[in-house]
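User: Please predict structures.

Assistant: First:
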Amino acid sequence: MASSSLDLENVPSADLMTELLRRMKCSSKPDKRLILIGPPGSGKGTQSPIIKDEYCLCHLATGDMLRAAVSAKTPLGVKAKEAMDKGELVSDDLVIGIIDEAMKKPSCQKGLSLMDFQGRCASREGLVKLTFSCLFLLCDAKIKYVVSASALY
C-alpha cells in the first residue's frame, strides 16, 4: 500500500465517494490537451469549467498559477514575485516551470486545458519548450474565441 500524508479518516465519507465516482467516470475518458485562445471577456473562463468537467481535465490558467506560486512562496513563485515587484513581465521560463509543475499533478493525468499563456509573442515559443508532449504543436485542439470588440465592453 502506498504511503500518503493525507489522513482519510478525517475526510467525510460523502467527499470520498464523490471523488471515487468522479475517478471512475474519468477513467474511460480519452486524454485531451486543449489550448483556449481569445481576448479577455470572450468566454474562455466561462467555458473552461464546463470543458474541464466534461473531459475530466485539469484547468491551468497561468495567472491563477502565478498568484498561487507567489502566495505559496515556491522557488518559482519567489522568482516570479521578484520580476513582478520590478514591474517586469514574468519570464517564459518561469511560467513554463510553473505549468510543468502543475502538469505533473495527478489531477492532470487525463489531460489539461491551458488558458492565458499565449497572450505574449515570446510565450508561443516558450510553450514549445514544454517537455510534456510539446503541447502547442501536438495539442488535440486550439479553441479560438472570436468576439467583436463591442461585445466585450
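Second:
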Amino acid sequence: MDAGQRTQPFRGAYAAPAPWDTFKLPRYAGITALEPYLAQVGLAAANDQWNNQATAAHVALALEGKAQQVLLDLTPNERLEYAILAAALQQRFGKRISKENMRDQLTHRRRQEGETLATYAADVRFYACRGYPTFEEAALEELALGAFIHGLTPERLKEHLRIMAPTSLNAALDEAERVEAVMIPCKRPGPQVCHEEGNVEGRVVLTAPGAVKGGR
C-alpha cells in the first residue's frame, strides 16, 4: 500500500493516520453529555478517514477521569473495536430517554417568554423525532408542525399561522419569524400592550389600545 494512501473509515486493519491527517480529539471525562462528543468523533473519523480500530484508539486515548474506567471493563481486543467502546461509554454516560417522556415533553411544550422561535422549533423537532422514531417522514413532519403551532406564543401569532396553514415545520418557522419581526411594541407610557389591527401588504400591523383610526 502506498505510504500516502488513506484507509477507509471503520474498515480493515488498524493503520495510523498520516501526520497531515491527524485530528486530536478533545478530552472526555464523563462530565459533559456523551452524545455531542460521539458526534465529534464521527466527524473526525470521517474527515481523517480513520478505520474502526483507529477511531477506537483515538477515543480511548482521549478518555480521562471516570471515563477512563470504561477501558477496564473491556478486553484488550474490545478496546480496539469502536462499536464496543462506544457502547460501553453509552452504558455508563449515555442519556437514557424514554419515548414516553419525549412524547409527554412534545405534548406540553410551550414557547417560553423571551425564547427564540428557532430554539422552540428545534426542541419540538427533537421531541418529535425521539418520541416517535418509527414514524415516516411525512407523518413526523405533520406531528411536529401541529405541536409547534399548538404551543406557540403570543396568541395572535398562533392565530396567524393557523390562518396561513403552513405545510411544514420549516415553513411555519419562517412565517412566524417574518411576522414577529414586524410586531413592534408600542412606545407609550404604561403597560406595553398592542392589538393586532390587520394585514397591510402581507404584514401584521399593530396599534395601541384606544388608537383612533383614520389619523384623527
